[in-house]
Fold this protein.
Amino acid sequence: MHVRTRSVDATKELAAAVVSVVRPGDVILLSGDLGAGKTAFVQGVARALGITERVTSPTFTLAAVYEGSMRLHHLDVYRLDNLAEVLDLDLPGLLDDGGLTCIEWGEVVVPELPRDFLLVSIELGHPEDIADARVVGFDPIGTSWHARAGQLRTAVAPWVGEAGC
Ligand code: ADP
Ligand code: MG
C-alpha cells in the first residue's frame, strides 16, 4: 500500500494516523535514504503520543526513549557501529516493555526482531514531482499487522488519493 505526502507536516499527520492502529509492544521499521523523512515520521508519531520533548535523530545516542501516552523508543542504526551497539542492546527486553519502538534504517535488525512489524518505506517522489513529495509505503509483516491491514488502510486513506505520481 502506497500513499503520497506533499510536505513534512503531511508526513507527520500521516504518522499520527498510523498511531491510531498502534498497540503497546509494536515495532515500526523505517527505511529510506538519508533525508527521506524517517525522523520526520517519528516526530509525527511522538506528537500523536503527546510527547512534547523534541525528537531528533538519535544517531549519536543510538536509542532515545520518550514518555507519552505510550512510551516511545526511537532507534537509528545508520552508522554501522550502531548496528553492533544495537545488537548489544537488550532488544527483546526493549520491545517488550509495553512501548512503541520505531527503528530508522531498521532492515538490518530484522533478523533480531520478533516476526511482527510494520515496515514503512519513504522515498522521494519522481524527479518531475514537487520537491517536498514523498511516497510512503506500508508493508504489514506478521500476523498481528496482517490482522490490522484493513484498519491501517482506513487510517491512511486520506493520503491514498495523493498517490498518483
Ligand atoms: P531521515 O530521517 O530519513 O534522514 P529527516 O526526517 O531527518 O530524514 O529529514 C527529512 C527532510 O526532508 C526534512 O528536512 C524535511 O523538512 C524534508 N521534507 C520535505 N518534504 C517532506 C515530506 N513530504 N515528508 C518528510 N520530510 C520532508
Ligand atoms: Mg533520521
User: Anything to note?
Assistant: The pocket of magnesium ion (ligand 2) is lined by residues 38-39, 57, 76, 104 (CB under 6 Å). The two ends are 14 Å apart (CA to CA). Helices lie at 8-19, 38-48, 80-88, 91-95, 143-147, 149-160.
